[in-house]
Amino acid sequence: MCGITGCVTKQGNVANILYNSLKRLEYRGYDSAGVSTVYQNNLIVKKDAGKIDEIHSRLNFLDLPGNIGIAHTRWATHGAPSQVNAHPHLDCTGKIAVVHNGVLENFLELKQDLEARKHIFKSKTDTEVIPHLIEESLKMGKNFTEAVLEAVRKLRGSYAIAVLYAGEPDKIIVARNESPIVIGLSKEMNLVASDVAAVIEYTNKVVFLENGDLAVVTSDNFQIFRIDSGIPVQRKTTELNWTLEMAAKGGYPHYMLKEIFDQPNVLREALRIQDKYLDLLTEFLDRGREIFLLASGTSHNACIVGSYMFSKLARLTTYPVIASEFIENYGSSIGIDTVILALSQSGETADVLTSLEYARYRAATIIGITNVLGSTLTRIARAYVLQNAGPEIGVAATKTFTSQLMVLALLALRLARKRGKVSQYEIDEFQEELRLVPQLVEKTLELSDEPIKKLSKETARFSSMFFLGRGLSYATALEARLKIMELSYIPCIAYPAGESKHGPISVIEEGYPVFFIAPNDETRKHIIGNIMEMKARGARIYCIGAEGDEEIKQLSDWYLGLPSTHPLLSPIVYVIPFQLLAYYTAVEKGYDPDKPRNLAKSVTVL
Length: 606
Ligand code: AGP
Prior knowledge:
This protein is of the alpha/beta class. It has 19 helices and 24 strands. It is 39% helix and 22% strand.
């Protein structure tokens, strides 16, 4: 996730407006940044790796001349953070500048075709194909608007772009598919940006573009067209009564709630991860004699789910291990045939890195899944996959957890194909269900928000809770417990439901709250038995199960039914209500869900 912004004023320089807007977008990405303006029919560009203020102290963004410009702050997905990979990107003539937020799926084929036409590329980014496509159309006699229309029609994937052209310096052209763009309207200027945070300081009048819209924005006007047909279209102007702080959170009261609701888009981005990165990890996993899935906290819970996926779809045995226990437990037994798949959204967790350094000393192969390009994990790993989830500001992992599960599912799918241990039908069925996950999560968010918000009035009064699940729903139970504990500080217990009768059930007394995760999979009949055991001892049964499961609903004191999905994908859907429960319970108790006590976003100490 990156941040783009642009502005065209009726008079006066635009540099300080671009700088302020860019700073408001820093939460969307901060590994490199750049600004471009047009002055006396020339494009001027300043960009570098680093945070916005660091670059500004070196290059001074504020002395850029001109009344029109665009800017970008980057969260790298293709090409490491560097000056050459920073946006804006230019064409061969240096007259076209483009900033982009999103992931282009077909940039390699476009790049090859453009290189065959003698275009010179400088960066490793997917974005750089866009100015060269526009350059090609301008060379064919199209005007700026027609050239951008033609270029974006060739793009596949997610994009929000803003384009400057020195040959027509009175307009900024923006276009979007999946990634958001908003136009800000004021008497002195018009702005474009990834979200309201970048414009709210200058205006509360905004127009939200829809997927497939292209807009031509001047200092006192704007026109919107449909990309596919070129037909003009109207979009309504909204007057927002947001504060600056609300805008930075997309109108949500906390980053955590924004990130919970951002998951459908994040999961779509995970499905756009390029095959070559997934195939490389698949190769290493397929060759390993023994494979450990190593992580801490929420990422460890993701490893448990991954282990089930690899086993059931590819008949590949893997061992999910807690990073801080790894060396003690397995250090003396690993060696050159060992493969370690490390999961760490920050890529900086000390327990993980320490284990990996030791494993590397023992000649094990290290591969990784992380959300931060350029993190230490990406430098230690032989190969890695980036989650493309965008920065996660809330301390509690939410969107990075479900995007880890999507990446693990994509790897399991490739391993299943490669190892051929299950039927083609099973593989096709899993692939189809995987594609539907983002919209299922969207539906689950809609179904869950109100009932869970209401339930949090109850859970806020609890002094303890039980979370029980069977099979890979045990991982969902562990993640539910972790979320509730780290945000509402209520001590909770999570157990495999089949294990609760071997001791923990002694905790149960009249009214004790027990949460069951009960998707309609092969564990359902045993879960019913576990519910009966708890009910017999006076427990109050809260159950999150399948939509329409009347039998379990009848057994429950509180029931929420979710849409069904492939059993191996149920943790992605079933964790959503628990993320919301943890959030609303914390708010109900008067705590700040973005900054829970005693915790850090990245635990860089042992
Ligand atoms: C999750 O909500 C917690 N913030 C914590 O358990 C976290 O998952 C753990 O510290 C691992 O972080 P990582 O994924 O960045 O390695």
